[in-house]
Amino acid sequence: xxxxxxxxxxxxxxxxxxxxxxxxxxxxxxxxxxxxxxxxxxxxxxxxxxxxxxxxxxxxxxxxxxxxxxxxxxxxxxxxxxxxxxxxxxxxxxxxxxxxxxxxxxxxxxxxxxxxxxxxxxxxxxxxxxxxxxxxxxxxxxxxxxxxxxxxxxxxxxxxxxxxxxxxxxxxxxxxxxxxxxxxxxxxxxxxxxxxxxxxxxxxxxxxxxxxxxxxxxxxxxxxxxxxxxxxxxxxxxxxxx
Length: 242
Known about the structure:
The chain has ten helices and no strands. The chain is mainly α. The model has no long low-confidence stretch (mean pLDDT 90).
């Protein structure tokens, strides 16, 4: 639509789809009473917890690499992989199909083993992005890896959301809202960083490698969280009278 009718038509189409989706939500989602919450100051105290801060940092840092790649996916596919412009919508559909698969996969893995699966997914994502950097000129492999990135980019999201909810028991709604803001900050940083890599750095193709390195930074946070979770709980103090 953007190629044939201009970028404004794309936004109009998105708005139309949202309105269509709103109708069944209004019809079938039952109304819920408001949840009783404490004061704002009390809810903000949840961010004093180290585990909550680490969970939000994991979302921001863990996503920035793949978002950097996706922000520039069109020129990467056309200028680096050599696909014609009219093939990009099809490849984006392939990415979207992978995202659907990844969303289900990530939710299932989160239920099985939250932090081990999330750590493994980030490691695989970093490896796939690095592989894409190596073979980006081979169109068949580029198409397959586009699907793989879609799977992995959305497979990590359920686990990240679940981690925030698990660590922010006293104010889960506020923590999840801030977590979403962290993701958007990562997306904004990704656009800026990709522009710098293209204009002042090693060039367009290297965005895959930069994305892989940034994902490794998110992986390091995940490994740190996993190690914290596996530390034995401190033994209770001996209160036996002397």
